[in-house]
Design brief:
166 residues, mainly beta, 2 domains
């Protein structure tokens, strides 16, 4: 009697990171005779130019009461958009959630990502989302740092640069 062992490959279920998640606010009616307040701009957390990260945008509040309505198409434009600027690598949608993969960008630039989403029932939702790109991987040392003759910055026991005059 012989036995057979079968190995089955399992699929990896990818889930976007909740660290870079934003959602549009609900559509709240404004009482007659009052002016609606302007909401704060939507903004994702900063990324480094070397990062390739996923960012989520949830439109569930716009679909409340419309069971079965989901995202059917997503259009993305960015400003500024020159060579070396922020790049959208891919876009995916699942229900009311759009997921964007961004790479690149110029450090010190805040990009405006214009997202236009169409749903199966014909709704169109457009929002601008800010995405700051900062040099997070390199530490800029103050010009008053104490250095060796070779230009190496001298640091204390905690890794902080020692400043001249301190």
């Amino acid at each position: 009697m012989s036995s057979t062992t079968t190995a089955t490959l399992t699929a990896h279920i990818w889930r976007p990171s909740n660290a870079r998640y934003i959602a549009i606010d609900g559509f709240i009616p404004v009482p007659r005779g009052t002016l609606p307040s302007i909401p704060a701009p939507l903004a994702w957390p900063a990324k480094d130019p070397a990062d390739v990260l996923d960012y989520q945008f949830d439109i569930a509040a716009a679909l409340t009461g419309s069971e079965g309505d989901t995202i059917s198409a997503v259009n993305v434009t960015m400003s500024p958009s020159a060579g070396g600027d922020l790049v959208v690598n891919s876009v995916a949608a699942d229900g009311s959630l759009a997921v964007f993969w961004f790479s690149g960008g110029q450090a010190g630039t805040v990009y405006t990502v214009q997202v236009s989403i169409a749903t199966l029932s014909g709704r169109t939702i457009s929002r601008s989302v800010l995405l700051p790109v900062l040099a997070l991987t390199s530490v800029v040392s103050p010009t008053t740092s104490l250095t060796t003759e070779q230009g190496t910055i001298i640091t204390d026991q905690n890794g902080n640069p020692i400043l001249l005059g301190s």
